[in-house]
Amino acid sequence: MQGGLRDLRKQVYRIFAPRKGGKLGYYTDWFIMLLIIANVSAVILSTVDTIYEPYAQMFQSFEIFSVAVFTIEYVSRVWSAVEADEYTGAISGRLRFASRPLLIVDLLAIAPFYIAVTGIGVDLRFLRALRLIRLFRLLKLARYSTAIQTFGWVLKDRKEKLVIAVFANGLLLVVSSSVMYFIESAVQPDQFSSIPATMWRGVAALTTVGYGDMYPVTMSGQFVGAITAVLGIGMFALPASILAAGFMEATENKLDERKQCPHCEKEVHLEQLEKIEQ
Amino acid sequence: MQGGLRDLRKQVYRIFAPRKGGKLGYYTDWFIMLLIIANVSAVILSTVDTIYEPYAQMFQSFEIFSVAVFTIEYVSRVWSAVEADEYTGAISGRLRFASRPLLIVDLLAIAPFYIAVTGIGVDLRFLRALRLIRLFRLLKLARYSTAIQTFGWVLKDRKEKLVIAVFANGLLLVVSSSVMYFIESAVQPDQFSSIPATMWRGVAALTTVGYGDMYPVTMSGQFVGAITAVLGIGMFALPASILAAGFMEATENKLDERKQCPHCEKEVHLEQLEKIEQ
Amino acid sequence: MQGGLRDLRKQVYRIFAPRKGGKLGYYTDWFIMLLIIANVSAVILSTVDTIYEPYAQMFQSFEIFSVAVFTIEYVSRVWSAVEADEYTGAISGRLRFASRPLLIVDLLAIAPFYIAVTGIGVDLRFLRALRLIRLFRLLKLARYSTAIQTFGWVLKDRKEKLVIAVFANGLLLVVSSSVMYFIESAVQPDQFSSIPATMWRGVAALTTVGYGDMYPVTMSGQFVGAITAVLGIGMFALPASILAAGFMEATENKLDERKQCPHCEKEVHLEQLEKIEQ
Amino acid sequence: MQGGLRDLRKQVYRIFAPRKGGKLGYYTDWFIMLLIIANVSAVILSTVDTIYEPYAQMFQSFEIFSVAVFTIEYVSRVWSAVEADEYTGAISGRLRFASRPLLIVDLLAIAPFYIAVTGIGVDLRFLRALRLIRLFRLLKLARYSTAIQTFGWVLKDRKEKLVIAVFANGLLLVVSSSVMYFIESAVQPDQFSSIPATMWRGVAALTTVGYGDMYPVTMSGQFVGAITAVLGIGMFALPASILAAGFMEATENKLDERKQCPHCEKEVHLEQLEKIEQ
């Protein structure tokens, strides 16, 4: 392998490696983050006909440009991965690197475009779903976003409690929806047509959303509905409380760490990123 | 009594006794748990006509199979109960054992089926209610589910606070609904036809569900409605806060206990179960 | 004054005085509490035509009976008040006693009946309002109910915080409703007819009730509505949090006190009552 | 400059300076506060036609009176500002003083009136917006209101946590709305016409307002809607929890400080005001 190419690979590796990229790495990070956000905004705006139709060409050009950049990013990451001690081995190392969750997300962000272009196994329904798939590019943000990382950490940390709370809520939903179905289906057979259909109403009631598309009309149905709504506040707030408590603790710790070494705030931040990425 | 039968009874007792069942007991527990969940799912799905009608035969066969298993389970539990020191006495011991809450649940899970089959005192309304009664089989899960046990414990532990909070909410509901009735019944006599009918609206407002089927239209009614909604957040959140605080504490203790002896996690779990069951 | 009458007055005083009534006082308390609850239930049920009409005579007899009992209670309290050291003086002492808040509530619970009977200044509207006024008898419960006393105490204790939170919520409501009015009134002049009318919608949104009778339809109105709803969760939950925290603390203290002296639970309870009543 | 005028300027400066105004300053503060509240009430009431039309003349006179008072207040503040050590310099000092946020609010509270009167660049739409602009006078309250100051402080103190929570909520909203759009737009193209339109529904669901103007009708849409509603409770409650915790802490500190020196309560209060104003 040529020395020049090897030097380039080392430099590329540094740009994408956390904590080592220097100024160029810092700007690359920001450029990709902004491009992801611009991509998601484009998908959202492209569903508004009055916005999409006059600028259809522009939207398509931007899509091609984005895929090009993300492809260069993906190829660069995989190509330069062998510079890391744990991924030596021209093929085996790169394959192990490419099977890390964040790298799979990177691949999924561009693969659908190439499948559509080549036209293998593509029909209209696939093309329609393609727009939705482009939203998965948001997941690429996980590499940079403290918010996503924090939530991932909280979910993992409070798993046991969350499972208990979710299971208890599931029980409450099944029982209340079944009782409601047996009471109301006699009077409103169209609305409360089955227990699964009543469950949708049950979620609306228990989360206090109350869409107003279905509600009990019998005396006993309203009584059960009232009891359910009151219980719903208590029960459905539990996962929320658990998440909130975990989140508060997690951000407090994170911010405390930063405060302890105010001159190296960035260092700490990147170190944490590295831990997650590797 | 024959020695072989006595050995079998001892073995059966062990299978159903917490902490002593070994591998066979462990699999039996899981089998019954899954059967309960499958039963409840079957009841739910059987209310969807498009699912039930093509598979009616299958649903009925599954019901018969389930009742058979639950009957064997119930009979085995009662028959082998005399092996325990506290339930000696062929008839008196078994009767005392059979009157424990969890055993009554076991009986209720199968009895309706036999009443329907024998046809004593059965009419169409009873057969209809039978499906609902089958949902009570969920209560059988109480023997295995930490979530249900935790909630039972929390409710008992916070009883005094909950009673005060529920009573205060009841007062708020009575007062706000009565005032609303006297204001709105003059303008909307069909909607706000009586205080009990207005209470239904009151619960929807106080729990912030807001179904949209009834709402005040007069200026003073809307003013009272606004005050009520604001108070409702504060007051109806109280039982929720009490439950959440109790639940958090309970799970924290439970998880801590487990963490203290990581090599005997199952032991701790079963020991707690035993306390509850006896 | 005769000795026999004086003895009776002393005994009557003891029956109604907290902590001194003995068994007779205890039963009197319970009898009056149950009568209050029965009264309120009667008022609520009497608004349901299908319940009231067949039993109209019974409802009226019960009302006369209740007023008679409450009148005897009121007269007995005032008459025997002079037995207390701080209310000596046949007329001045009794007047001072009768002007205490709980005694005024006692008077208001019976006075409307006598006004209606004598027919002075009575028209049909007054008779209609009479039913509502009867609900104020609930306030008589304040003498016995820990829940009402606790809330009274919490409101007093957290007054400063609550005032700040309520003021901040008022500001948010005024600003959001005004902005919403200026945006939506051009498109939906009937629904968003004025700022006060829009405020009703604002409360429904900020408390997350969302009745569905009014909602923004313009893009900017929906944007403001979305921001408002998100802010509403944060802001309108504040008074709730303050109340809940105060309530938790209050009940904890109360229950702790009781636990410290388990053999005189009733004593503590009555002592607190006495403090509040005097 | 004449000695008499200089004395007047010093006295005017004292009236408006926190902590130095004495009795006259105290009454001036209260007069301006009440005038602000009266102004906002006038704007709100003037949108009710049945109130505005009979008293149109009175509303206009009150507006002229208010602008006059606020103009005198503004001119007095700027004119006397040079008395402060940090704003010496007849023009440069006053300009620096006039560019402080609270002074800009003071200017914005009166400027629109003069623009409308002079008629430069004024059309009907501007006159309509004028009424709304008058509501900005509420911001003048910031100088006196502890509630507004407390919230400003809390927002600044919890900025980092709030940014993470808001960003996470934004992600949840984008993802859930996009998924909902792709599911429901096929069945209800009028309601779920684009992702931004669906986002409005998403906010209503995630904040549990549930207006009832748009809701999913397909099975999968309802499933996503249910998941979203449950997540919404957890996620959208986070900023609320952060704000509430910050607010609790802030008011506790503030009230504690006051309690420590009960004889100079006002001093502490004004000292804090001064810090914020300068």
From TrEMBL, chains A, B, C, D:
Pfam families: Ion_trans (PF00520). It is a multi-pass membrane protein. Residues 26-253 form the Ion transport domain. Keywords: Ion channel, Ion transport, Membrane, Potassium, Potassium channel, Potassium transport, Transmembrane, Transmembrane helix, Transport, Voltage-gated channel. Coiled coil: none annotated. Its main location: membrane. GO terms for cellular component: monoatomic ion channel complex. It comes from the Archaea. SUPFAM superfamilies: Voltage-gated potassium channels. The keyword Translocase does not apply. The chain crosses the membrane at residues 30-52, 102-127, 162-183, 223-248. InterPro entries: Ion_trans_dom, VG_K_chnl, Volt_channel_dom_sf. It is found in: Membrane. One of its GO terms (molecular function) is potassium channel activity. This is Ion transporter. It comes from Halorubrum trueperi.
